[in-house]
Amino acid sequence: MGLPLFTKAVWKTVKNTNNSHIKVKDYIGIYRDNWFGNVEVFINGDKLWIKSHKLPKFNGEMYFYNSNTFAIKWKYQDMNANAFAMFSLDEKGKAQSIKMKGISPSINFSFHFQYLD
Question: Which of 66, 56, 21, 60 is nearest to 41 (CA)?
């Protein structure tokens, strides 16, 4: 069974998007959430990554999708729960907070991404 069409379209968009205008330093930081604990956005090699300090399987590379949204491909793929990370930015373009939601419309509801804030 392959990826749903919407999910395939997301990764096609990621692949074809020019992200040279993104200032990754504006997204780096530690964000606090009651469920995920401390969520850190950082540079791993030359790539933007995200990880939850409380939930080690939520650790993966971030790919620019559009506007203020990144697609996350978790390192641990057995979960089948790749997600969007949508940042709220201040007036200078610096990230202030993150919200998340699953990329696949059929993602298991138990991941509770919608509660990350």
Answer: 60
pLDDT at 89: 95
pLDDT along the chain (117 residues), means of 10: 72 86 92 87 95 89 95 84 93 94 75 65
Joined tokens for residue 76: 């641990």
Question: HSE-up of 104 (CA within 13 Å, CB side)?
Answer: 14
Domains of the chain and any CATH numbers: 5-115 (2.40.128)
Which residues lie across from 100 on neighbouring strands? 85
Q: Residue 3: what residue type?
A: L
Q: HSE on the CB side for 59, CA within 13 Å? A: 8
Burial of 58 (C-beta count, 10 Å sphere; 0-12/13-18/19+): buried
Residue where the block lists tokens 């998340």 = 100
